[in-house]
Amino acid sequence: xxxxxxxxxxxxxxxxxxxxxxxxxxxxxxxxxxxxxxxxxxxxxxxxxxxxxxxxxxxxxxxxxxxxxxxxxxxxxxxxxxxxxxxxxxxxxxxxxxxxxxxxxxxxxxxxxxxxxxxxxxxxxxxxxxxxxxxxxxxxxxxxxx
Length: 146
What we know:
Blueprint: H1 2-24, H2 26-42, H3 46-50, E1 53-60, E2 67-68, H4 69-82, E3 86-97, E4 101-113, E5 119-132, E6 138-145
Parallel strand pairs: 1-6
Antiparallel strand pairs: 1-2, 3-4, 4-5, 5-6
């Protein structure tokens, strides 16, 4: 009987373990995703930024022009790069989720240009919903910021 109980406990730990570790490490996963996203942004690489989204992703920027899917999302970010936005940084406020869906909230900052073309600080808040990929990485499903 003792062998049955021990086997059942081991089986529970094995099957519960991966889900628990993903949920417990949501903040670390989001920080890693934010670092990769900022790196692509700061290289002014709209294609690399768009690659961080799932194929059915939605980007909801302050312009209220929803971008759907990587091609539209790439076009949105390329437009920002063309307008001289640089130096993006995401700082995690909170993160959570499970082995499939993870959320992150962040403060963001960047440098834009004022009406005279002089550098000006930009900042706001962002909310992200990620889908966990088979390799454990995160890809954006939904992003909104102000």
